[in-house]
Structure formats: structure tokens, C-alpha cells
Fold:
Amino acid sequence: AMILIMTMTPLHISAHGHGLTTVGLIMIAHFAGMFALAPAIGGIVGKFGAARPILAGLCLLATGAVIGAVAPPASGVLLSVALLFVGLGWSFGFVAGSALLTRGLSYSQRVRLQGSVDTLVWSASALASLSSGILVDEFGFATLCLLGGVLVLAPMALIAHKRAAVESSMGAPAVP
Structure:
């Protein structure tokens, strides 16, 4: 979802008359969301575990996708907020997911698993990047953003389902 939106945003902005300064500022907001707060997000994951930060990241990513879909092309501010949220949502998911993925494994198991996951993640990223131009050309930027938001719903539904199943098997009341 993040790659779909991020890849086409500079072209969308340029196509609607924004100069390179605006494009750069919007992408700076996005990259700041992706990387600047990663150490703080790591602290949040360390304190609260991975599940809640992953859910927060999915919510941020979906919110950013919707803002990107409804933002008027002339609004550099709204597009900056959209891309900041998309980047921040990705960062929450990536940091928390990486921590969760390798917890409790030996070094050799972590290396093997991380390599396999990286292959899947970057293959999906390449597919998203390659298809994003076709999707924007065919359906427009707003639809691309909404598709990114819809792609976030699947892991959110899976997390909610798994969490409910675990809590019901333990006899614990559901935690919001």
C-alpha cells in the first residue's frame, strides 16, 4: 500500500502544476514518517509489544491513503499530511513486524527467516511499484490511494480475527 501511493505521488503532484520544491517538501514529509521516528517507534514496541503498534501503523497507513484520495491536487499541505501518515504507518508496521518476526529464534533461524520475508516484501514492493503507474493511468490517483487503503484492511481483519480467537480460547474478555 505504501509503495503504491509513494511511487505515484511525485508524478501526481507534478502533473497538477507543483514545482520540484513542493514535490521535495511532500516527499520529505513522507521520508520523515518512514525513518525519522523509527527509534521512538522501537521504544514503543519495546514498551507495549508489537501488536498494538502494528495496528496503529495500519490505521495510520489507511488514514493517509484516504487523505491522499480526497486531497485536492492543489493542496500541498493535505498531500504532505497524507504522505507523512503513509510513511509513519509503514514505519510502525515495519519496526514492530521485524521485532515480532524474529523474537525467540536462534541467530541462524532469524537470518533465514528474515531473508525469506525480505524476499517476499521486496517482491511485493516491486510489483506495487511497477503496477502503480498502470493503475494511475487507468483509474487515477484517488483510486490508487483508495486501493492502498483497501489493501490495509486485509491485515487489519486478520489481526482482529486472530486476536479474538486467541482471547476466546483463553477465556479472556476482548480488549479494544
Observations:
- Residues 122 and 128 are 10 Å apart (CA to CA).
